[in-house]
Structure formats: C-alpha cells, structure tokens
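Supplementary Methods, section 5.1.

A reviewer requested that the exact input to the structure prediction be made available. We therefore reproduce it here, unchanged from the version used in the analyses.
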Amino acid sequence: MKHYKAIIISALLFVSTGVFAEEHAAAALKHAEQAVTHGKAGHASVLVTHAESALEHAKKGEDVATGEAKTHLEAGIKSLEDSITQGKQDHAEIATKSAEEAVQHLKAANK
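The structure derived from this sequence is encoded token-by-token as follows.
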C-alpha cells in the first residue's frame, strides 16, 4: 500500500511541476510581448521593465521545465537578457529585436 501512495504522490508532484512551469512560461510570454509593444513605441525603459518581469518568470519556469520546453526557455532567457542590456542603454530598436526573439522561443516553450 505504501508503494501506491508513493506513486500517487510522485505523479501529483510531476503534474503540479508541469503546471508551475506552464504558468511561468505563459506569464513570461505575456511580459515579453508587452516589452515588444513598448519597444516598438520607442519606450526603452518600459521595455526593460517588462523584459525583466518576463525574465523572472522564464527562469522560474526553466527550473522545472524539461525537454524542448526547457531548451526554448533557455534561449528565451538569453534573448531577454540581451533585450534588457540594450534597453538599459536606450537602444529600443535593438532591444525590441531581442525581445521579439524571446517571444518566439517562449511561444515554442508554451506548446
């Protein structure tokens, strides 16, 4: 009987971990899309704010993601970091391109 309880607990943890990763990947995508929108409007500082929020969520999702989702989250994180760096230098156009790359990776991670 203890063996079955351990299996059930393991399954529940696996499912909840997957949901946790999906929720953070979805939140990261939402903020990355907002970063792109503001970057296209030339609002580098607002782009940075959203890119930082996206990065925070992407990192939390990456911690528990597996397989292809993890690979895309890692690439999205790199693009977000680049976007933040460029945005802080007030290079809205370049920061936007990096944020757009992050959006593509985060969309793939959300599949």
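Residues 2-109 form a domain with the Four Helix Bundle (Hemerythrin (Met), subunit A) fold (CATH 1.20.120.660). These observations are discussed further in the main text.
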